[in-house]
Automatic annotation (TrEMBL):
Its cofactor is Mg(2+). It holds the Pfam family Inositol_P. This is Inositol-1-monophosphatase. Keywords: Hydrolase, Magnesium, Metal-binding. InterPro entries: IMPase, Inositol_monoP_metal-BS, Inositol_monophosphatase-like, Inositol_monophosphatase_CS. CDD domains: IMPase.
Length: 265
């Protein structure tokens, strides 16, 4: 059953990724700003979400839907699809070949504190990479099984993060980065939360953390990172969610969380 759900997620994410890539080749413009002038949407985001929503309505008419561009609809099956049609929209706008279609199917309320991720697919069209996971069965890049990097001390850790769209929170995030940078191998800001989580899963970075994400940004990537052996958590005892998400090998996650607690103080 879950494998069928993953097949649906993967197939539709690939199709939406092809649509996004065609838009990118034809040229992309900002269609509108959302929460702030730096938070943007393009026509491709809207079309890709409409495509995904339409396909899911045909194939899974009783499931709920929660998408970045078109909002939520409750279903009767207890399952909900969390969809970011183009994660990394700013990269997409500028032609930086690092953006993704992210689709997760979860059980329960699509609230980070109560849902249980069942399966997820994250497709990076420019790289031709397809990351997938099924809860309890594993995570893959194409056919290759994923495993997080072995633990390292923080001075040997490549840490990835992202920034919110609001100016006030960005100022706080800048201060944390200033304190963190001298204590780790380096910091990356790659611009696509779902792929940031997949990077931890694929041992391309040692850790990822971010504040203020939305469910569609992290739902699929969180299943993938967790199935690759990462701890995926929120602040202190909280589940990963809007306030905070941290993903890393359990040993690295504990050390990084301690350091971040000091930097926030
Ligand atoms: C954004 C990206 C970015 C992260 C932002 C997200 P969007 O998603 O994932 O890396 O730092 O917090 O909102 O707006 O491109 O779908």
């Amino acid at each position: 059953m879950t494998r069928e759900l993953l097949d649906i997620a993967r197939t539709i994410a690939r199709e939406a990724g092809d649509l996004a890539a065609r838009h990118r080749a034809a040229g992309v413009e900002v269609a509108a700003s959302k929460s702030s002038i730096v938070d943007i949407v393009t026509e491709a985001d809207r079309e890709a979400e409409a495509l995904i929503r339409g396909r899911l309505a045909e194939l899974r008419p009783n499931d709920g839907f929660f998408g970045e561009e078109s909002g939520a609809e409750t279903g009767s099956s207890g399952l909900t699809w969390l969809v970011d049609p183009i994660d990394g929209t700013v990269n997409f706008l500028y032609g930086i070949p690092h953006y993704a279609v992210s689709i997760a199917v979860v059980e329960g309320d699509p609230d980070p504190l109560t849902w249980r991720g069942l399966a997820g697919a994250v497709v990076n069209p420019p790289a031709g990479e397809v990351f997938t996971a099924i809860a309890g069965e594993g995570a893959w890049l194409g056919d290759a099984r994923l495993r997080v990097a072995e633990p390292v001390e923080l001075p040997q850790a490549l840490v990835n993060t992202g920034f919110a769209y609001g100016a006030e929170l960005r100022a706080e995030q800048g201060a944390v980065v200033a304190g963190l940078l001298p204590k780790v191998r380096d910091i990356r800001r790659l611009g696509t939360a779902s792929l940031d989580l997949c990077a931890v899963a694929a041992a391309r970075t040692n850790a990822y953390f971010e504040r203020n994400l939305s469910p569609w940004d992290h739902a699929a990537g969180a299943i993938i990172a967790s199935e690759a052996g990462a701890t995926v958590k929120g602040w202190a005892d909280a589940a990963a969610g809007r306030d905070f998400i941290l993903a890393a090998h359990p040993v690295v996650a504990a050390a990084l969380e301690e350091l971040l607690a000091e930097l926030h103080a």
